[in-house]
Queue: 4 jobs
Job 1
Amino acid sequence: MRVQFKSSYDDDINLFQDNRHRIQYGILILLAIAAPFVLPEYFVGELTQIAIWSLAGLGLMLLVGHTGQVSLGHAAFMAIGAFANIALMTRGWPFIPALIASAVITGVAGAVLARPLLRMTGIYLAIATLALSVIIEDIAIIAEPVTGGVSGVFAPIIELFGYEIDRYGTPTAFYYLCLGVLLLVTLMYANLLRSPTGRAFLAVRDSEVSARALGVNVANTKTLAFTLSCAITGLAGALYAHMVQVVNYESFLILISITLLLQVVIGGLGSMHGAFLGAMVVVLLPQVIATLRDLVNAHTPIALGNYPGMDMAAFALIILIMVIYEPRGLYGVWLKVRTWFQLFPLYRKGMFRRSRTYLKTERMR
Amino acid sequence: MDVLQLLVSGIANGCIYGLLALGFVLIYKASEAVNFAQGDMLMLGAFLGITFINTGYADMPFLLGLVCAALVLGVFGYLLERFVLRGIFGQPQFAMVILTIALGFLMRFFAGTVWGHNPMSLETPFTGQVLRAGGLIIPMVDAVIIGATVLLTTVLYFFFARTRLGVAMQASSQNQMAAYYMGIPVKRVNAIVWALAGVVAAIAGVLFAAKGAVEPSVGLLFGIKAFAAAVIGGLGSLPGALVGGLLVGIVEPFAGRYLPSGFGQVAPYVLMLAVLILRPGGLFAQVSQKKV
C-alpha cells in the first residue's frame, strides 16, 4: 500500500493526487482516443453511446450523488437540450453555438423550475420531477413549431471546421466529438468539486441544517446544482439527438429518466467514476444479454427469445442485488477490491460498513 | 347532466386512484418509504383477479376470487418485506426508491411472461349493467367501485382506531425508535403493513380490471397518477390519499372534456405541482419543524 503524505491543504484538493494518478488517467484517455483505430465500427457506435450516457449520468450525478437531490425527471431536460439544439441548427445556427446555447437553455429551464421544485425535499422532489418527465411528453406534442409534434424532427448534419460529421457516415468523427465534450465536462466537473461551491454541494447533501449553520446558502446552492446538472444533461440530450438522428416525444419517455437514475445508482452514488461505470452497464448489458440468449437458445431447448423485456428484468435484478448488498454501486465494488489487494492479509470485512440511521428525519424538515 | 355524468365516472376512477394512494400512504406512514412498485402490485392484483374469476381459468364466484387475489397479494407483500426490503432497513430513503423501482420492473417482466402482453379484462356479474337515477346513467361497475371504496375505508378506519395492531402501526409510524423501545415489534409491524398494502392493491386491481383492460405496463402510469393523488393529499395522511385520489379522478375527465387536446393527460400532474408549490407537504400535511 502506498502512503501519501499530505503536507499542505492543496494536497487535499489537487485534481490529481500524484504523478501515478496522472499517468493512469493519461493512459485511459489515450486508450479512448486509440479505440476507433483498433475496434470494429460497431463498437465505436457503442463507445459513442457510452460517452453520451456518461455525460447524462454526470449531469444527474451532480444533483443526486453530490447534492443529494433525487430527480426522477432528467429525461425531460435531455429533451429540452435535444429539441433546443435541433431547433437552433435548423434555423441556421452553426453547431458549436447551438450546442452551447442548448446547454444554456436547459440550464435556464432548470433554474426556473428549481426554485419551486426545491421547496420540496426527498420523496416529494422525486415524485414532482417524475411528473415533470410525464408532462414533457405532452409538451413535446403540443409545442409543434419547435418539436415537430408527433412526427418529431430530424437532426441536421453537423458541420465543424469544414468537416461534415454524421453518426452513420463518419462514426469515428462523431465519437471524437462526443469524447471531446465529455472530457471537457469531466474536467469542469472535477474542478467544480474541489472548489468552495463543490464542497457546499457536499455539505448540503450531508446535512442541510449543518450546512446552513456553516454559512452555506442552502437554497442558492441547490438552485445552482440544479442549473448545472440540467445544463450538462441538456448537452447530453443534444448529442443524443444527433446520435439517434430523429427525436420525437417518444425519445424521452419516463423510462429513460428512471434508467438514468438507476444508471447513476448502479455506478455508485457520489463518485464521478460511478457515472462512467453505470453508463457502461446500461449500454453493454443488452449486448451481453443478447449474446447469452443466443448461447442458451443454441444449447438448450428453452427459447429465451420468447420472453420480451429480459434486458430490463436483468438490469432490475442487478440493481436489486446491488442496492441490498452493495449500496455504493460498482465503484464501491472496485474500491473494496482495490483495498483488499492493497492491504492483502489485513483486510477486514466490516471495513466499509456505514452506520445506519433508524430515525425519522425526512418528515421533520 | 353532462357534468354530473363526468363527475360520476371521475369519482369512480378517483376511488381506484385513492385506493392505490392509500397503499402508498400505509407504507409511507409505517416505514417512511415510498413503494414505487405499488402500481405494479395493482397490475398483479388485476391479473390475479382475472385468473381466479374468469371462465376458462379458475372460474370462481366474483367475491371469492376477490378474496383469493387479495390473500395472495397480501402474502406476497409480506414476503417481499420479509425477504427483500428488510435488508435495507435503516439505509437512506433513497435506497428504497431504487429498490422498489427495480421490483416494479421485475413484476412487469413476470406478469408479461405469465399472462402475456395482450390486454385482458375481467368478467364480472355486473358487467354491462346500469343504474338509472333520474336522467343519470350510472354503470353498475362505477357504483360497485364507489361502494367498495367506502366500505374498505371504513374498515381501515376502524382497524387503525380500534385494534391493537392498528394502534401499533400508528405508533411505529410516528417514531420507529420510540415504538421499538415501547415493545412494539416494529419489523413485524412493517411486514404486516406491506401485506395490508398488498391487499388494498389487489382490491384496487380487481376493481380496475372490472372497469377496463389490464396489461403488464398499466401499473407504471397508473402508479404515477396514484402518486400524484397521494402527494396532493400529503403522503402521511390516509383521508388525504382518498381526497387526492378523488381530485385526480375528477380533474382528469373534466380537463379532457373542456381543455384543448393534449392538456387532459397533463392535468393531474399540473394539479399536483401546483399543490406542491403552494403547500410543499400536500394538502393534509402535518407541519412540524425539525430540531437539531
Job 2
Amino acid sequence: MSHLHIPDGIINPIWLLIGFIVTGLIICLSLFMLRKRDIQKLVPRIGIISAVMLLGMSVPLPVGIGYHLNLSVLVGIILGPWAGFISAFIVNLILALMGHGGVTVIGLNSLIIGSEVIFGFLFFKVFSRFLRINISALITTFFVLALSTSFMIGIVGITQINPAKFLHHHEHNHQTQLEEHSHQVESQEELSEISLVRFAKIIIPFAFIGWVIESLVTSIIISFVGRVKPDLFYEEKR
Amino acid sequence: MDLYFIDYLASNGHSFFHKASAVSKMIFSMSIIIAIIMSNRPSFLAFLLLFLLLLLKVLKQPVLKILAMTFYVAVFAIIFAVSQISGSFLWPLTIILKAITAALSVLIVLTTTNYFDIFAILARFLPKLIADSLFMTYRSFFILLKELKNLIMAVKVKRGLSPRKIFTNLKSLGDILGVLFIHAVDLSSRSSEILAIRGYKGGMAKYRNLRRFSKYDFAPLILSVAALLGVGIFG
C-alpha cells in the first residue's frame, strides 16, 4: 500500500535522478557492509526471501481491490537492514519490469520500501527487548508502515506533482502580462496545496486498513516462525 | 501478479518481436517511456496506447489479459488522478493514460523476451551480488509459487478460507505464509550447500551472450524512432 504507484512521466526527472543516486549510494553502502559475509549463503538467502516478498505481494487480500501484503518489515527483521535493502531493490526492479509501477520511479520506490526494511529491523530490535516477538512485530509493522506512507506523501509533496504545472505548461504561450503571471503563480501554489492535502486524505484511510492488515498478518507469521524456528529472528543480532 | 503467465508468453511466442534481440526491445520500451515523459497531450498518449494495443494484436498476444495486468498501476493512477482534479479533467486523464501506456510498453518487452536475455543485460550493469540474487529470486519464485498454491489448496480443503470470515482468512493467510517462509529458509540453506559444492564465488548471472542484431531488430528500432519523432512533432 505504501508503494509509490505514480506512473512514469509525472515526477520531475531531477527527482527521479536523485532517487536513483540515493538508492545507488545506499546499495553501495549495503554491499560494503556485507563484504565479509559468505556470498554462498547470502545470495540464496536474499534471492529466496525476495521471492517470498514477491509472492506476498501477489496474494490479493480479501478486503477490497488493490490490497496486497508487502512483507517488507518481515524481510527487514529476517535479513537485516543491508541485505534487506538489496532485497527491496530487487523486488522493485522485478515489479517495474512487470508493469507494476513505473520504471523511472524504481529509485524512489526502493527508498520507500527500503525505509520499511531498515526501520522495521531497528524498531523490532528495540521492541523485542521488552515485548513478546508477535506484539513487537505488530507494533513495529504498524508504525513503520505509517512512517513509510508519510514518507511517500512527503515525496509527492516535495516533487511538486501538481496540475498547476501542467496547466501552466499549456497556458504559458498565451501569457503576456506580468500581472497575470504573478496571479497564476499564486493560484498554482493554492492548487498544489489543495491537491497534496486531497491526495493525503484519499491515501491515508486506504493505507490505514493496509497497515492494520499487514501488522496482523506479519504478527501471525512472526508468531508461527518464532515457534518453529525461534533462532531465525536473532540471526542479524549476533 | 502473473509472472508465470508472462514467462509462458515469452517462451512460447513466435512473432517477429519474440525473434528480435532484447537490446532492441529495451530500446523500444525506453523510447516509449521517454515519449510518455515528454508528452502532456492526452490525445497523443491515447494514440500511443491504441498503437501498443494494436501491436499486441499483431504479435498475437492476449491483448485483454495483458491489459488487465496494468490493473494495479491503473487503480493507483486513478486514486492519484482523483486527488489532482481541479476543474479540468485533462490532467487526471493524462495521468491515467501515462500510467497504463508505460506499463504496457514494459509488458510488451517482458511478454516477448526470455528472462535470461533481460537478466543478461541487467547483469552487465548490476553488482554480482545483486545480479545473482535477482536470478535466484526469479527462479525460486516459481518453486515457491507452486508450494503456495498447494498450501492454499490444503487450507481451502480444511475450510480455513471462506469469503465471509475476514479474520479467519487473515489468520489462515498468516499461517500459510509462515509455513512458506520456513520452507523458503530451508530452500535457501539447501541452495547455499549446492553453491558451496559447485565452488560458487559469485558471478552466477553470466547467463548467455547477448543475441546479435538481426533483421527482426529493425521493427522495434523503427518503432522507437517513430515514437520519438511522434512526440517531437505531435506530443
Job 3
Amino acid sequence: MPASRGGDRGRRVVVSGMGAVCASGVGARRLWEAARDGVSQIRPLKTERPYDGRIKIAAQVPDFDPAAYIEPAVLPFCDPFTQFAVVAADEAMAQAGLSRADVAGPRTAVIMGTGIGGMTTIEDGIYKYYVERTRPDTLSVPKLIPSAMPTTISARFSALGPTFAVGSACSSASQSVGIGLQMIRAGMVDRAIVGGAEACVINATIRAWEGLRVMTPNLCRPFSKGRNGMSLGEGGAVFVLETAEAARARGHAPLCELAGYATTSDAKDPVRPDLDGASSCIALALEDAGLAPRDVHYVNAHGTATHANDITESEAILRVFGDYGRDVPVSSTKPIHGHALGASGGLELAITIEALRAQTVPPTINFLEFDSSCPIDAVPNAARAHKIDAAMSNSFAFGGINAVLVVRHA
Amino acid sequence: MTDQPQDLSKLKEDIIEVIASEGMVDRSKVTPDATIESLDLKSVDIVMILTALEEKFNVYIPMDGSLQEAKTVESLIDAIAQHIQKERETQ
C-alpha cells in the first residue's frame, strides 16, 4: 500500500456514496455487474420519431419511468439528463448515509457535468416549432440549461454552496469530480455532490454524431484489431465526496479515497486525440495522488474504439508508465455502457471504484485480436482477479480537454 | 454482385471529384501517388469528404484502420471504394 499523502495538498477526500443510471438500468451495482460479466447493454436503437440514419444501435436506459422516482412537483422541470442525475444522486446520498438535513447549508457544493444539457428538450422544442408549427414546452428554458441538473440537485438537498454545471464534452463528469475534490481539499466546502449526466440519444443528435464517423455500425471493440468506432450511450452517475475525517467522525465507511486528479488541454485539433495532452494529464494525476506508475494496478481507459483514440491512449500510457504500461491491466468498458459523453467519466469512475473494491479487472469485450499499434494488456473478453491498490480512470474529450482521476483504498 | 473494372474506375473518378471539391484542393493535385499530407487535408476535411460521399453513394463509411492508415491518395481512394463496394453488396 503506498504511503499516505502528506498534508501539502490539503485534506484527504473520500467517496462516501455513488449512484448510476445507464443502459444497465438504475443502480451502480447493476452497472458494475454488467461490466464485470462483460454483458453489453448496447441494443437496437429506439426513438420516438422514425430514425432514418445509418446507425441502428445505442446504449439507452431501458424501461425508465421517471415518475417512479421524482415528485410530480419537480418532474416537469426535469429533462431526461436531469432525471438520470436526480435518480443517481438519491442513490449516492442513500449509500453515503446522509440525509437532507446532514448536507443542507453553504458547506455543500453541487458540481455536475454534461456535454450538451437538455438535448431532448431542445430537439423536441425545435421540432414542435418548425415542423408541427406549435410552440415549445413552456418550461423549455429552465429544463434545457445545463445548470438545470446541478440546481435541481441543490434544491433537492438544500445544498447552498457553489453550484454549477461543467461543459467539457466527454471530460465533463471527470472534471466535475476533480473540481469537487479540489474545493474540499482547499477548505472551500466540506462535501460535494459531483458527477455527470447526458441524454442525447435522439434523432438529429445521433445523425450529427454519425457525420463525425466515430460510430460503429456493428460492434464497439476497443484496442482490438478491426475496431471501427463507438456506440452512443446515455445515463448519469453521481458521487458524494467528503473529507476522510468527516466520514470517520460519523462512523461511515467510505467506498474509497479519491486520491488524485489532473486536467489538461491539447490546444490542437478539436477532433483528433493528442499524445502530449493525454500523457501529461496522466502524469499530473499520478503526481497529484503522490503515486508512482507501479502503484496503479488498473486503468479504466477512455477507450472509445476509434482507430485514433486507442492508439494515442496506448502510447500515452506507455509514455508515462514505461515498460510497466505493457503489463498494467487497461480495459475499456464503453462496449458495455456505450459512450455516454458528459456522463461517461462518471459511469467509468463508478466501475473503477467497484473494480478496486472487488479486486477484479473488468474486461474489454468484443476483442478480436491484439493490435500491435495498441501494445497494452486490454484484458480481452474476460474479467480477471487482480490485486488493485490504486486505479485510474481516463477521459479525453473532443476539443482537447483531458481529465484523469485516481482512486485508492480509503 | 461484383463491380466491373470500368465501374470501379468510374467509382474512383467520382471519389477523386469529391476529394477535390470537399477538400478544396486543385483537381490536378489529386493524383494517386500524392500524399494526403501534401494536399494539406485535416481530419475535419476528411470528415467533410466522407459525408459528401455518404450522400452521393448512400453508404455509411466508418473511420476504421484502412481509412486512418492511408498515407497516399491512392490508398485513401482504395479504402473508400472498398467500403462503398462492400455496402453495395449488402444492399
Job 4
Amino acid sequence: MKKILMICLLVILNGCVNQKPLEELGLITAVGYDNQDGMLKGSIIYYEFDPLHPNNTKMVTSLAHTSKGVRQKENLASSRRLVSGQLRVAIYGEELAKSGIISIIDTLSRDSEVGTMSYLAVSKPQAYDLLQLSQESEDVTNAGTFLYDLITQNVEADSLLSPTLHEFMQCYYSEGRDPVLPLLNFKDGTIIIEGISLFQEDRAVGQLDSSDSFYLKLLLDPFEAGSTEIILPKEKVNEYILTSNNKQKESVYISLDHLRSDTDIKLLDKQTPSFSIKIKVKSRMQEISENYDLGNPEAIKRMEEAIGKEMERQLIQVLNKSKEMGADPVGFGNYYRAKVGYDTFSKEEWKDHYQNAEFKVKIDVEILRTGVMD
Amino acid sequence: MMNTANKKNSVVLSAYLVFFIVHTNQTGVGIAGIQRIIFLEAGQDAWISIIISYIGMAVVVYAMCYILKTFENKDLFQIHKLLFGKWIGNIINLVLVLYLLAGLMAILLGYTEIVQAWIFPDLETWAIVLILLLISIYGVYGGIKTIVGVSFLGFFLTIWLIFMLVVPIRYIDWTNFFPIMEASPKELLLGAYKTSFTVLGLEMLLFVYPYIRDKHRVHIYAQIGVFFTFALIFAVTFVAVGYYSGEQLEKTIWATLSMFKIVQFPNLERFEFLAVSLWLVIILPNTLFMLWAATKGLKRIFNLRQKSLVIITSILVLICSIFFQKRANINEFVDIVGLFGFYSIFVYPIPLAVIVWIRKKMKGGVQTR
C-alpha cells in the first residue's frame, strides 16, 4: 500500500504542474507605464538568465488597454516567457499618474506572483524615456535592480518615505490618508530621485522637493538615523558666535545627523479642525558654518531653540503646501476619523473640511553631541 | 460489543494531548482569512467579537466535558444511541457524519483554492484533493495514535509562523483601531458568530474522549486548547486590522497569508510560498480527524469495517469536490458548512448537556454506566 501511494504521488506531482525552467524565462525587474492617446503604453525591462552574459537585460514596449494586455503583447516580442516574480520597481509616467493609476496598481497587488515589497515610483519624463535612457546609460546596467537599490538605500538612510506596493495600497484604501511616491528623473547619465510626488487618492496632484520631503518623513516615520541641513538667521544666535569665519552675513548653516524623532499628533478641535503636532528630535551636530561657543550650555540651548523654531516654520509651510494641493500624506483624516467614527466620517466632506485645517506645531530639539570637539 | 470496544480502546492517550487535538483541529484554512469576515461585521472592533466568541467556546467546552464525564467511556455516537434509542440515535449520528464529511470537503476545497491562487494556478482541483485524501487515508490507516501524533508534530512545525507577525506589526497604523466600540452590540455578536465558523473543530473532543487516560484532566486541557486558539486568532486579527486599512482588508481574501508577503529573508525572498506550503501541515490534523471521526460514526451506524469505509467516503468526497470549481461556489458551500457546524457544534451541546443533566436527576443517583 505504501509503495503504491508513493508511486501515485510521484506521478501526480510530476504531471500536473507547469514547469518553469530558469533558462526559458525572462525575469521582469522593472515596468513602466505611460499614457499614449488614451491607450496604455507599457515598457518592461527583463533579465535573461545566461551564464555567459551576466548582465543581459532587454527592453520591450507595447500598447494596449489593460496592463495584462500589455504583458501579452510584450510576450509576443520576447523570446523568453516573461514572469513577474522578480519585479522590483513599477514606474508611472507623471502624466499618467495625474489621471489616476489605481487600476494599474491593483493588478500588481492582485497578482500573487508580485511581492508586496516591490517599489512604486513616479517619473518626471515619460516612464518609457526613463527606462530607455537607463538602458543606454553606462551607469545603469539593470534598471530594475538599480532603482531598487537606489530607493532602498535612501529609505534606509531616512531621506525617503518607503514607497512599497503595500504602503501605497494601505494609504489609498484608508479613508483619511493619501499616498506619496518618489519622483524620479534622468540627469547626467543616471537616474536620480528628485523629490516626492503627492497624491490625492490615486491622482498625482503635486510635488515636494527633497528638503521639503524631509519634514514629511519627520512626521510619518519615526527617524532612526536621518540627517538634515538647517539655515538659521544669524541674529538669533549672534551673541554666542565667537569669531565669524564665514562670508555669509545673514545666515548660519548647521548640519545635523543621527537624527532620532518621536511624533505625537492629536486632534484638538473637531470643528476647525485643528491638530496639535509635537515632535521630539534628538540629534548630533555635525557641521556649523561659524565658530560657535559649543562648550557653553546656554549657547547650546539657544541654538536648540532656534533650530526648533526654524523646523516648525518649515514644517507648517510643507503642511500648508500639501493642504493646498488637496493631498493628505500625513493622514490627518485618519486622526479625525479616529475621533468621530467611521459612521459619521465621509471622504467627500473631509476633503472640504481639510482645507480649513490648522496645525499647531511644537518641535523640541536636543543636541546630544557635537562631534569629538566642542 | 461495548466491552470489546472498551478493551480495544484500552486508554492509550495522555490527557495533555487533548490540548493539541483541540487546538490543531480548530486552526485550519479559516485562520488564513478570518480577518475580513469578522471585519465585515464588526469593523475595527473585530477583536472584541473574538473575545465574545471565546466566551462562547469556553462554555461549549464545559458543556461537552459535562456530557462526556457523565458517560465516561463513550463517544458521542454511542451517547446518542443510549439517550435516544437505536433509530433516532442513528439518524442524529448520520447527520453528524454528514457534517463531518462536508467539513472535510470544505477544508480540502479551501486549501486547494489557496494553492491554486498562490502557487499553482493550473493544478487541477481533483489532483490536489486526491493528494490530500491519499495522505489522509494513509494517516487514518495508522490509527488514532498516528493521527494524534500528526497533530502534535503539526503544532510544533507551524507554531513559529506566529513570530513572523512581528514584521507586519511595524507597518501598523494605530488610527485604524479608533474609535473603539463603534460597532453596535448586534454587529459585535454577528462578528462573534462568524468567528465561530473558523473555530469549529473542538467537536473532536467528543470522539476521542474514550481514548484518553486521565479523564478528570481532559476539561482543563481542552480549555487551554481553546484559549490558545483564541489567542492566535486574536493576534492575527489584531495585527491585520492595523496593517490593512478598512477597504483594503475587505478586499483581501487571505489576510494572514498576504501579511507574510512582506516578510523577507536574504535567502528566501518570498516567504509566503513557504507559508502556503506549510499550511498543509496546519490542515492535515483537520482532514485526518474529520475522516477518522466520520468513518468511526459510519462504523457505529452500519457495523462495517472502518478501513473500507475510509476508502468509500474518500471516493465520495473526491467525486463531490469535482463539482466545485468556482470561488463563488466554494464560498457558498463553506458558508453552509459553517452554519451547519455552528448549530451542531456550538448550539447543540448545550441542550444536550441539559438533557443529560435531567436524565441524571431522574435516575437519581443510579449509575449511568
